[in-house]
Fold this protein.
Amino acid sequence: MKSIYKTLLIGITAFIAIPMTAQETALEPEQETVQAAQNTENSFFDGNGGVIDSNLPTSIDLSERKPIEYNNPRTDDVVWQQVVYRIIDLREKINFPLYFPILSGDHRQSLFTTIFRLHEQGKIKGFEYEDTREIFTKEKEVKFDDILKKYGVMITYNIDSLSGDTLGQSVDEVDIPNRDVIKYYLKEVWYFDKNNSTYNVRILAICPKIYTMNNDGALESNPIAWYPFDMLRPYLAQQEALLTDANNGARETMDDLFIKRKFGSYIYKMSNTRNRNLIEYNVNTEEAHKEQNRIKTMLINYEQDLWEY
């Protein structure tokens, strides 16, 4: 009799255990699905303060990206050079990656916002703009607070709620005059290095040009400050730029845009003994355009003429 009870007890236990095991087995794929969803969600966290991306994570981490290195020539090896001044007009379509977005987002911000924030944080220095010369010395340095005051940029003061003391100041992104900076001055040098037998161009400095209304209601332009380009490059190499609307995944850095010459510009001055720009020694706009084309052709043909036999 006892053996019969023992046999029934074993059978009942096995009958109960089978569906429980099946239930546990059936839950495993569901758990895997939940875990996969969590992993997918976590993949949108890029480490920037826990911010979740609003698009697919197509961009790469540029925090360790270094600018393309120059081949620095010795002074004695530069047997020919020519300093050229250009104007970059951000209203040209090719220059849109430097102008947009107006407000930062999706790992991108405009060139001026980048320069503005770097100057605000003391990572770069600006120097006074003068029509006839560029002097990058401490005496000519432009303070960031002076720029805010001169162009009426709104400042937000951080006040301690208990003591009422001012803890610091900042500028909200919507108050950065990004829309008003539509042109840049660019200073560059073209040179021939006889040691390496190479013909190169190097950007020396860049100057944002802001457009504001004067007291008469007329639009006037003011160069903000010269910024040495080599001082900017480490940060431009870590700043993405969207090149085309056709492919949002085709992104390069702002440093790439300048070094690879993927921007539009026109010449307004070339170094000369009397230090005049094109308008000053050409009688009209048509003659100035001809002079621009002459300088452009001269810069292109110089390398070709080096290797003619």
